[in-house]
Amino acid sequence: MTKIAVIVSPKGISDAGGVERVMLYVRQALRSQAYTVILLDSHFLAHSTLGRTLAFLLNGRRSFFWQSLLLSYFAEKFRRRGAFVIANGYSSFLARADLLFSHGSMHGFRVAKAESLENGKRWKLKLFGFEEFMEMIAGQRAKKVLAVSPNAAREWQRYYRISAKKIRMLPNTVDTAHFKPKDSILRASAGEPDSGGGSGRLLRVLFVGRLEWRKGIDKVKAFAEYCHEQHLPVRFTLVAPDARGSEHFMHLPNLSIKIGIPYAQMPDIYTACDVVYFPSRYEGFEMITLEALACGIPVVGSRVGAIGYLLDKKFPGVYPAFTQGSEHLHGVLMHAAEEWSDTPRKYTLHEMVEKEFGIAKWSGRLLEIMGEAHV
Question: Residue 235 pairs with which residues in a beta bridge?
């Protein structure tokens, strides 16, 4: 009997975005178990008769709602034929998904954002937006909710009243065959300093993500300006998917921006730096942190997402960025770079990441949870 699984991922499956890459790993795990995998995404809708008929809705206001509604229809259609349905957040909110990935929550993000609002506006947190209602409905209709972090699980229980009995934990994974350290000998032969740890040595700081408030890019800018004003030997590299927000950094000579770096080149980006600085305000479980650690590069950042999870587990190579100011932050970054400048230690860190977050272990856990949902 043919086993069929449906993955609902509006932006498709690829090695680009976080959700899209997780779904890539899901498809690999399913195919290893002889599943025929059907992808429901925007491309599927655009080439369907129903999608072409209702294209004016998919390209208009509230397009995300109509897209989710149509994807719900197709997901349910396949489910009634015996397919196993895997969805993400509110991607197909009316479908009765067998597994629903929770990469965080829309309401949780709004709560995090409200920390910067005046008290007079905080009453808005009691209201739910379209996406939040859709997430809540999706979670209530799903058989199992896969939370990528304890915080994501708590948010779905607290905000969306999802029973803890149907929530399962599945932190994100990383391809450790792709992300791995680069030998110091190779770094030196490429004309790169071996480490930024020593006194007076260049400290190379990396940020990966969109140049937006949610990712804490204002904190990166403030710290880069401080280092420039203090004439500190610190060089910043920002890697972003697009150029939006890059104009705010043009005045900084100690900073360069790389746009749209392909997945294949990302290990070289990580290993060319000494430390990753990621002061994000809200994350589900960012893959950036796992990628850096798999390359033997330490990460300093906010206690959210993967960083918060790893700090709680006392996993090595991760450091909290406190709020004592730029001078203190510089010391933390220097300390992290020094601790992990030794090549053998980098490989030890890589092995620890592989053991705890490697694709093999992650896939095994996913298949276990699928078995629970089948019952």
Answer: 204
Q: Where are the domains of the chain?
A: 3-173+358-374, 184-357
pTM to 2 decimal places: 0.90
Nearest Cα to 104, choosing from 173, 161, 162, 152?
Answer: 152
DSSP 288-327: HHHHHHHTT--EEE-SSHHHHHHHHTT-TTEEE--SS-HH
Give residue 294's Cα distance to chain centre. Answer: 15
% of the chain exceeding 70 in pLDDT: 91
How many other C-beta atoms can be found within 10 angstroms of the C-beta atom of residue 145? 25
Q: In Å, how far from its chain's centre is CA 100?
A: 16
Q: How many CA atoms lie within 13 A of 155 on its CB side?
A: 26
pLDDT for the residue 189: 38
Question: Which residue has better confidence, 192 or 366?
Answer: 366
What's the whole-number mean pLDDT along residues 211-239? 95
pLDDT band at 116 (very low <50, low <70, confident <90, very high): low
Q: Which residue type does 20 have?
A: E
**Average pLDDT of the residues of the chain:** 91
Tell me, what DSSP letter sits at residue 201?
Answer: P
DSSP H helix total and E strand total for the chain: 16, 12
Class of domain 184-357: alpha beta
What's the distance, CA 215 to chain centroid?
A: 11
Do residues 5 and 34 lie in contact, with contact meaning Cβ atoms separated by under 8 Å? no
Copy the structure tokens of residue 127: 């209201």
Summarize the confidence of residues 124-144 as an average pLDDT. Answer: 88
CATH superfamily of 3-173+358-374: Glycogen Phosphorylase B; (3.40.50.2000)
Give the distance from CA 189 to its chain's centroid: 33
**Side-by-side strand order, sheet with 99-102:** 35-40, 3-8, 84-88, 99-102, 144-147, 167-169
User: How buried is residue 223: exposed, middle or buried, by Cβ count under 10 Å (0-12/13-18/19+)?
Assistant: buried
Q: Is 124 a residue whose pLDDT tops 90?
A: no
